[in-house]
C-alpha cells in the first residue's frame, strides 16, 4: 500500500539521519522537507511536471558535463539496468554529453548515485496497485543522489531528474539547480485509457505512449480492446473474434505487457460487454440477443446489438474466453465495460422478457445486474477483480448486488462518484477527463477526483475509496497519425492533478511546465510525432511541389494560431465513419496553441510586440494567396478538409482588428481612416461590435477554432470606458 504521511516522513527522517552516506548530509544543513504552501510553486521555479510534494531549493546550481556518470550502489538488476540506459539516453539527447553507467564511486561531482537497498531479485515483479512509488532526490555540489525503497520509486525519481536539466542561455552548458525533493503520489491509480477499437492503434503507438506515460508518472494503461467497430486482440480459442488485419497478436500483448512493466506501468484490458459488442457477433452471432448476420459497425454511437444474458451458452463462451485472456494480462484488474446498453433487443425478445419475469429481475437494468453478477463470478474464478463503467450500478436490486470488491469507473454523471463511494465501492474517476473532447488543459486541471465531486463523507472514506483517475482518449475522431497531439500535452495536466498535492493550482505555472515537457518528449526521442512531423504534415496540404517551400511558413503561421474542435462540433459537420481518413487540416493541428498562450502572458501595454504580431497576421493571407489561386482549388479543399482559405482571411481580419485596438490605445481614435463612419460611434458600441465580430471570426470555419481571437479579445476587454 501507499505509505501514510506519517510513515512517509519517518522513512525519510531515518533516510537522512542514518541510512545515507555522508555526501547526502552535506545538503541537509537546513530543514530538508518543506511542505508546499498553496500556490507557492512559482516561487521555487522548478520546471517539473507533475510537481513534487516537498521541495527545498537553493539559489545555486551544479554543472552537468561530458563524462556524466550514473552509479548504482547496488548490483544492477536487469530492470534497473534497462531503466538507467533509458534515462542515460534521455540525458545525452537533452545535453549532447556522454553518460556512462557503472558501480565505481569516483570523487568528481559530475554524477548521479542511485540507492535502492531493496533491489535484490534479478527481475522485479509485475507492479501492484498501491506499491511504494516515493523517492528522494538530492542535488548537491558534490553530486546528485536518488534514493527509493523500490525500483518504481527510482524510475519516478529519474523522470524528475531529467526535467531538472536546464541550459544556460548564454552558452552551450547545462546545469541542475541545487534542490532537495521528497515526493510521492497523491493517488495510487493514475491511468490513461486508449481506445484502439474504433480506430486502430498499432504497437508503435502503444510503445511511444508508454514512453511518455513513464516520464509523466502515469502508472496504468487501460486498453479499450473491443467495441462495435473492431475486436483488437487475437483469440486462439475463438479465432473468428479478432479483426482480420488490425489486431494485436498474443505475442504483441505479451511484449507490450513486459514493455509497460519495465516502466512500472500496469496494462488493464477492457472487453466491453454486454453492449458495444457488434464485433463479437460477426464471427459468433449465436451470442447476440437477435439472430444475425452481423457486420462491423462503421458509424459511432450506441448500437442495438447486445449479448444475450439469458443463454447459458453465453457464459460457457465467456468462461473459456476469460480463461484465455486472463493468462495474457497478468494484472489482477479486468475491465468488462458495461456502459451504454441500448436494450431494445432485450425489450423486443419475448424469450428474454420471459426470463426477466421468471427471475424477478423487473427490467433491463435487473437483467444487466444478473449478467454482471455472473461475469464477476467468472472473473473471480481466474483471480481477477472486475472493473465496470458506472452503469453497472444502475438500479441494482438486492438479490443481484455485485460484490464490493468491484471497482466502478465513473464517466457520465458527477453524482455517480458520490453514489459509488457511499455504497462502499472503490472508484476510478474519468468524469471530466475525456481528452478527446479537446478542452483546454486548465479545464482538465480543475477536475479534482475528491474536491470536485462534493463528497460529503469523512475524508478518510473518500481517500480510501477513490483510487484515482484515468484520462480517456476515445478514438472516433482520432487515428494513429493524430493520437499523440490529442494526448499531449493535455494529459500532463491530469497527471499532475493525480500525482501532486491539491494545493498546486497556479494556471500559468502549469502551462509553463506543460509546454516545456511537450517539447522534451520530442527532444528525448520518445517516439511521439506531433511536434517532429508537424511541419511535414502541413506541407502535404501544399500540392504544387514548386510552392511547398515558399508557402510552408505562412501556412505554419496560420496553423499555429488554430485549434481543433472536439467531437461534438465535428459530428455536426460531416458524417464521419471508421473508414474516413483523419488527415485533414484540423487533424494536424496541436490540441492547444502554445503561441496563443504565450501571447496571453504579454503585458497589455507591450504595444510593440503586439503590433509586430498583428501586422504579421494581417498580411499573412497575402503570402498564402497562391495556395488558393490554384486552378485545382476544389481538389485542394477536399484534401484540406476544412476551409483554410476562409481561416486565412479570418486571421487577416483578426490582425487588423488587433491593430485597430492598438491605435485606439495609443491615439484614442476608433478608425485610422478619418472618413470612416466608425469614428462617429460611441466607444461602448465600438467595443461591442468588435467583440461580436471576433466571436464570429473565431468559430466561422467548421471544425477549427481560430485561437488568434483570444489575445485580441483580451486587449479589447482591457479598454476602460470612462463615463
From TrEMBL:
<keyword id="KW-0326">Glycosidase</keyword>
<comment type="similarity">
    <text>Belongs to the glycosyl hydrolase 20 family.</text>
</comment>
<keyword id="KW-0732">Signal</keyword>
<dbReference type="GO" id="GO:0004563">
    <property type="term" value="F:beta-N-acetylhexosaminidase activity"/>
</dbReference>
<dbReference type="Pfam" id="PF14845">
    <property type="entry name" value="Glycohydro_20b2"/>
</dbReference>
<keyword id="KW-0325">Glycoprotein</keyword>
<dbReference type="GO" id="GO:0016020">
    <property type="term" value="C:membrane"/>
</dbReference>
<dbReference type="InterPro" id="IPR017853">
    <property type="entry name" value="GH"/>
</dbReference>
<dbReference type="GO" id="GO:0005764">
    <property type="term" value="C:lysosome"/>
</dbReference>
<dbReference type="GO" id="GO:0005975">
    <property type="term" value="P:carbohydrate metabolic process"/>
</dbReference>
<dbReference type="InterPro" id="IPR015883">
    <property type="entry name" value="Glyco_hydro_20_cat"/>
</dbReference>
<feature type="domain" description="Beta-hexosaminidase eukaryotic type N-terminal">
    <location>
        <begin position="49"/>
        <end position="164"/>
    </location>
</feature>
<feature type="signal peptide">
    <location>
        <begin position="1"/>
        <end position="21"/>
    </location>
</feature>
<dbReference type="GO" id="GO:0030203">
    <property type="term" value="P:glycosaminoglycan metabolic process"/>
</dbReference>
<dbReference type="InterPro" id="IPR029018">
    <property type="entry name" value="Hex-like_dom2"/>
</dbReference>
<dbReference type="Pfam" id="PF00728">
    <property type="entry name" value="Glyco_hydro_20"/>
</dbReference>
<protein>
    <recommendedName>
        <fullName>beta-N-acetylhexosaminidase</fullName>
        <ecNumber>3.2.1.52</ecNumber>
    </recommendedName>
</protein>
<feature type="active site" description="Proton donor">
    <location>
        <position position="340"/>
    </location>
</feature>
<dbReference type="InterPro" id="IPR025705">
    <property type="entry name" value="Beta_hexosaminidase_sua/sub"/>
</dbReference>
<dbReference type="InterPro" id="IPR029019">
    <property type="entry name" value="HEX_eukaryotic_N"/>
</dbReference>
<dbReference type="GO" id="GO:0006689">
    <property type="term" value="P:ganglioside catabolic process"/>
</dbReference>
<feature type="domain" description="Glycoside hydrolase family 20 catalytic">
    <location>
        <begin position="187"/>
        <end position="501"/>
    </location>
</feature>
<keyword id="KW-0378">Hydrolase</keyword>
Amino acid at each position: 500500500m501507499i505509505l501514510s504521511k506519517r510513515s512517509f516522513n519517518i522513512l525519510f527522517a531515518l533516510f537522512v539521519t542514518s541510512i545515507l552516506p555522508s555526501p547526502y548530509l552535506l545538503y541537509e544543513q537546513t530543514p530538508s522537507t518543506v511542505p508546499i504552501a498553496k500556490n507557492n510553486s512559482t516561487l521555487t521555479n522548478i520546471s517539473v511536471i507533475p510537481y513534487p510534494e516537498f521541495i527545498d531549493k537553493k539559489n545555486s546550481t551544479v554543472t552537468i558535463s561530458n563524462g556524466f556518470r550514473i552509479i548504482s550502489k547496488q548490483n544492477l538488476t536487469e530492470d534497473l539496468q534497462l531503466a538507467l540506459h533509458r534515462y542515460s539516453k534521455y540525458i545525452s539527447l537533452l545535453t549532447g554529453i556522454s553518460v556512462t553507467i557503472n558501480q565505481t564511486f569516483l570523487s568528481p561531482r559530475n554524477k548521479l548515485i542511485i540507492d535502492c537497498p531493496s533491489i535484490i531479485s534479478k527481475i522485479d515483479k509485475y507492479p501492484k496497485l498501491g506499491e511504494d512509488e516515493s523517492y528522494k532526490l538530492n542535488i548537491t555540489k558534490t553530486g546528485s543522489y536518488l534514493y527509493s525503497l523500490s525500483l518504481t520509486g527510482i524510475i519516478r525519481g529519474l523522470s524528475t531528474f531529467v526535467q531538472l536539466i536546464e541550459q544556460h542561455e548564454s552558452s552551450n552548458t547545462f546545469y541542475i539547480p541545487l534542490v532537495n525533493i521528497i515526493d510521492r503520489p497523491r493517488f495510487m491509480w493514475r491511468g490513461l485509457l486508449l481506445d484502439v477499437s474504433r480506430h486502430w492503434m498499432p504497437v508503435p503507438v502503444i510503445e511511444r505512449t508508454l514512453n511518455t506515460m513513464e516520464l509523466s508518472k502515469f502508472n496504468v494503461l487501460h486498453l479499450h480492446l473491443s467495441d462495435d467497430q473492431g475486436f483488437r486482440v487475437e483469440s486462439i480459442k475463438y479465432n473468428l473474434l479478432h479483426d482480420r488485419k488490425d489486431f494485436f497478436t498474443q505475442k504483441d500483448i505479451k511484449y507490450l505487457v513486459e514493455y509497460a512493466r519495465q516502466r512500472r506501468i500496469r496494462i488493464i484490458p477492457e472487453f466491453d460487454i454486454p453492449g458495444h459488442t457488434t464485433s463479437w457477433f460477426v464471427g459468433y452471432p449465436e451470442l447476440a440477443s437477435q439472430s444475425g448476420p452481423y457486420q462491423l459497425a462503421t458509424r459511432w454511437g450506441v448500437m442495438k446489438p447486445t449479448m444475450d444474458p439469458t443463454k447459458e451458452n453465453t457464459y460457457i463462451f465467456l468462461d473459456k474466453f476469460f480463461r484465455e485472456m486472463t493468462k495474457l494480462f497478468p494484472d489482477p484488474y479486468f475491465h468488462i465495460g458495461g456502459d451504454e446498453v441500448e436494450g431494445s433487443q432485450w425489450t423486443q425478445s419475448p424469450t428474454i422478457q420471459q426470463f426477466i419475469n421468471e427471475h424477478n429481475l423487473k427490467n433491463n437494468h435487473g437483467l444487466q445486474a444478473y449478467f454482471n453478477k455472473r461475469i464477476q463470478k467468472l472473473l473471480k474464478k481466474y483471480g481477477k477483480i472486475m472493473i465496470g463503467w458506472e452503469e453497472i450500478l444502475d438500479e441494482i436490486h438486492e438479490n443481484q448486488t455485485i460484490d464490493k470488491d468491484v471497482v466502478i469507473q465513473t464517466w457520465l454523471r458527477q453524482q455517480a462518484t458520490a453514489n459509488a463511494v457511499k455504497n462502499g465501492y472503490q472508484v476510478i474517476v474519468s468524469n471530466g477527463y475525456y481528452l478527446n473532447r479537446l478542452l483546454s488543459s486548465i479545464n482538465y486541471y480543475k477536475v479534482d477526483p475528491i474536491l470536485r465531486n462534493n463528497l460529503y463523507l469523512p475524508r478518510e472514506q473518500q481517500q480510501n475509496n477513490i483510487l484515482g483517475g484515468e484520462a480517456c482518449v476515445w478514438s472516433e475522431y482520432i487515428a494513429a497519425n493524430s493520437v499523440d497531439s490529442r494526448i499531449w500535452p493535455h494529459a500532463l495536466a491530469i497527471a499532475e492533478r493525480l500525482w501532486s498535492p491539491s494545493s498546486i493550482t497556479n494556471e500559468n505555472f502549469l502551462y509553463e511546465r506543460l509546454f516545456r515537457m511537450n517539447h522534451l518528449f520530442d527532444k528525448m526521442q520518445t517516439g511521439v510525432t506531433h511536434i517532429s512531423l508537424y511541419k511535414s504534415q502541413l506541407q502535404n496540404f501544399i500540392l504544387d511541389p514548386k510552392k511547398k517551400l515558399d508557402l510552408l511558413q505562412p501556412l505554419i503561421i496560420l496553423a499555429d494560431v488554430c485549434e481543433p474542435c472536439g467531437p461534438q462540433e465535428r459530428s455536426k459537420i460531416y458524417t464521419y465513419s471508421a473508414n474516413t481518413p483523419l488527415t485533414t487540416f484540423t487533424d494536424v493541428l496541436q490540441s492547444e496553441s502554445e503561441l496563443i498562450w504565450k501571447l496571453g502572458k504579454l503585458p497589455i501595454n507591450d504595444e510593440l510586440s503586439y503590433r509586430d504580431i498583428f501586422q504579421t497576421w494581417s498580411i499573412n493571407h497575402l503570402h498564402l494567396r497562391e495556395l488558393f489561386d490554384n486552378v485545382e482549388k476544389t481538389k485542394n479543399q477536399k484534401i484540406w478538409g476544412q476551409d483554410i482559405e476562409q481561416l486565412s482571411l479570418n486571421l487577416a481580419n483578426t490582425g487588423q482588428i488587433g491593430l485597430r485596438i492598438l491605435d485606439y490605445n495609443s491615439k484614442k481614435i476608433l478608425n485610422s481612416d478619418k472618413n470612416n463612419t466608425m469614428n462617429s460611434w460611441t466607444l461602448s458600441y465600438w467595443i461591442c461590435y468588435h467583440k461580436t465580430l471576433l466571436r464570429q471570426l473565431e468559430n466561422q470555419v467548421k471544425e477549427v477554432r481560430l485561437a488568434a481571437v483570444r489575445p485580441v479579445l483580451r486587449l479589447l476587454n482591457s479598454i476602460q470606458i470612462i463615463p
